[in-house]
């Protein structure tokens, strides 16, 4: 990795990933580590050009509060404290922290007192995102107060001679005006980082590393056709060519034409040098799914079946020393950086068979955010259609068919979904909706078509706006587009006589139906 890197010490803040992404958007590499996993010696070994302390839910003066070896302030490395991180810095350096008489949450007007440091681009009264119940009541010696609010005497402070900066607000969230510029000033001007974090150089170093590590051995990759595993395949192919075997299991629950698309990119006639093994397991999955209507039961069948099919195929094609996975950085962060940050255990981490004997797991994308993975995919020559693809769940259309899955229902939902996607693309909306799809309700209703009574399925259309898929809102798709989609679906897809639009946000709904 480059010498220009920023260490983000996580004290349990909800925006730790966002801070890392913002730093990388400045062209500078950053990593997030839980504070309790980084001893002073680890920090020295990491050799950062700058350190950022994140927010966190505790009080800096509380018993057992997350803290840090004071030696970090002696390293001569600039530090930026955000929210809890700001308070921790103030507290450890001899300032005073108190419970604020008035907490500040959300958009807050911050008066800027001094623009000679990282707040140079700020408005005189800058709208910032706050979320705190404690505040710095007195800064430590050597600091100047650079911003305040009506309820918070120290909204920002700086000790420029020592390279210590602190902001009570969250510069990493979009609601803070000029927040990215404050971070950029810290990273580029204060820490003096060069902007050398770019996907073309990442690809080159990763390719060399993979070659060196793998030598003449063989690598097996379970290719789903999603962005992460596809980019992983492209990268490995550039590095080791046909020492890579990609197994693509068509479970019959993919979108219309999807299996053919994946085969055209990665198969024999595609542009990549690798061994492509397509396993058509559709009938096997339909049989296993017969009679299963409960969502978790369906997911379990699909997960177990995947492992069985994959194991069987792996045995047939012979020994591969390495298993590659398209794990990405949010999966790594969310799977736990220590106690404070466990949000959920991700299905991609550790979700593959343990019965097949591999020497090691390769995860060449494990330090990349999703937008970086997409960028890398472009560098490697993957088609834009694949690189900018919306998320698609591992269990596929099975979670978009409420209740029991049958081949016929899969076909119905595939056709309806293809029409929906086509019309969204035609209307120029594809890039502005986070995720959208058609699903099959298990409901049949009475309708009338050409003077005949019908009793057919209702399709539900879903479209959401979200930045992290943890919360989401229904997209406002123009009425005329929805009308066109409805007309085409009822006319062109057999067994559908009704189309509904799902208005539910998440929570209380989820993005998928099951
Ligand atoms: P939910 O339905 O949980 O979906 O609100 C949030 C996001 O995750 C995707 N999703 C999955 N992705 N395996 C996956 O790889 C799964 O089992 C799975 N379930 C949901 C969903 O499409 C959405 O983007």
Written account of the structure:
About 3% of the residues have low confidence. The protein is 32% helix and 24% strand. The chain is an alpha/beta fold. A nine-stranded mixed sheet has the order 2-1-3-4-9-8-7-5-6, with helices on both faces. Strands 12-11-10-13-14 form a five-stranded parallel sheet, sandwiched between helices. Bound molecules: xanthosine-5'-monophosphate.
Please specify the SSE layout and strand pairing.
Elements: E1 5-10, H1 16-25, E2 29-34, H2 40-46, E3 50-53, E4 79-82, H3 84-92, E5 96-112, E6 125-138, E7 144-148, E8 156-159, E9 164-167, H4 179-190, H5 199-214, E10 219-222, H6 227-240, E11 244-250, H7 258-266, E12 275-280, H8 282-289, H9 295-317, E13 322-324, H10 329-334, E14 360-362, H11 370-379, H12 384-387, H13 407-426, E15 435-449, E16 452-465, E17 473-474, H14 479-492, E18 496-501
Helix pairs in contact: 5-6, 5-11, 6-11, 13-14
The structure holds xanthosine-5'-monophosphate.
């Amino acid at each position: 990795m480059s010498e220009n890197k920023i260490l983000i010490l996580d004290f349990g803040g909800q925006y730790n990933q966002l801070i890392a992404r913002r730093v990388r958007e400045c062209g500078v590499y950053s990593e997030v580590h839980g504070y309790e996993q980084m001893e002073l010696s680890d920090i020295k070994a990491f050799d950062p050009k700058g350190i950022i302390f994140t927010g966190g839910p505790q009080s800096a003066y509380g018993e057992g509060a997350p803290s840090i070896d004071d030696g970090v302030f002696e390293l001569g490395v600039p530090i930026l404290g955000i929210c809890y991180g700001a308070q921790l810095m103030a507290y450890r350096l001899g300032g005073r922290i108190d419970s604020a008489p008035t907490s500040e949450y959300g958009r807050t007007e911050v008066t800027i007192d001094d623009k000679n440091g990282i707040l140079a681009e700020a408005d005189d009264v800058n709208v910032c995102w706050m979320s705190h119940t404690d505040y710095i009541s007195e800064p430590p010696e050597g600091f100047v107060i650079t911003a305040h609010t009506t309820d918070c005497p120290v909204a920002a402070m700086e000790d420029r001679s020592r390279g210590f900066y602190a902001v009570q607000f969250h510069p990493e969230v979009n609601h803070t005006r000029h927040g990215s510029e404050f971070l950029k000033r810290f990273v580029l001007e204060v820490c003096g980082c060069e902007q050398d974090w770019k996907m073309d150089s990442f690809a080159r170093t990763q390719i060399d590393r993979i070659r060196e590590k793998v030598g003449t051995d063989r690598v097996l990759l379970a290719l789903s056709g999603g962005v992460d595993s596809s980019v992983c395949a492209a990268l490995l192919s550039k590095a080791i060519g046909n020492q890579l075997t990609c197994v693509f299991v068509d479970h019959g629950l993919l979108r219309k034409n999807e299996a053919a698309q994946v085969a055209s990119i990665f198969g024999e006639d595609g542009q990549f040098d690798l061994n492509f093994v397509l396993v058509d397991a559709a009938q096997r999955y339909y049989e296993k799914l017969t009679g299963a209507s409960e969502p978790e039961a369906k997911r379990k069948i699909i997960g177990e079946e995947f492992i069985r099919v994959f194991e069987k195929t792996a045995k047939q094609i012979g020994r591969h020393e390495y298993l590659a996975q398209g794990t990405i950085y949010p999966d790594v962060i969310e799977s736990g950086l220590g106690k404070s940050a466990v949000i959920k255990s991700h299905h991609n981490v550790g979700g593959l068979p343990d019965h097949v004997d591999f020497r090691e797991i390769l995860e060449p994308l494990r330090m990349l955010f999703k937008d970086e993975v997409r960028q890398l995919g472009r560098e490697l020559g993957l088609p834009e259609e694949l690189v900018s693809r919306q998320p698609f769940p591992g269990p596929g259309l099975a979670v978009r068919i409420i209740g029991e899955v049958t081949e016929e229902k899969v076909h119905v939902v595939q056709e309806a979904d293809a029409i929906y996607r086509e019309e969204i693309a035609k209307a120029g909306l594809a890039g502005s909706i986070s995720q959208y799809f058609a699903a099959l309700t298990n409901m049949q209703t009475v309708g009338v078509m050409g003077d005949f009574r019908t009793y057919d399925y209702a399709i539900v259309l879903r479209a959401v706006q979200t930045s992290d898929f943890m919360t989401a809102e229904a997209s406002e798709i123009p009425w005329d587009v929805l009308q066109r989609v409805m007309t085409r679906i009822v006319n062109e897809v057999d067994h559908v006589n009704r189309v509904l639009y799902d208005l539910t946000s998440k929570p209380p709904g989820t993005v998928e139906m099951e």
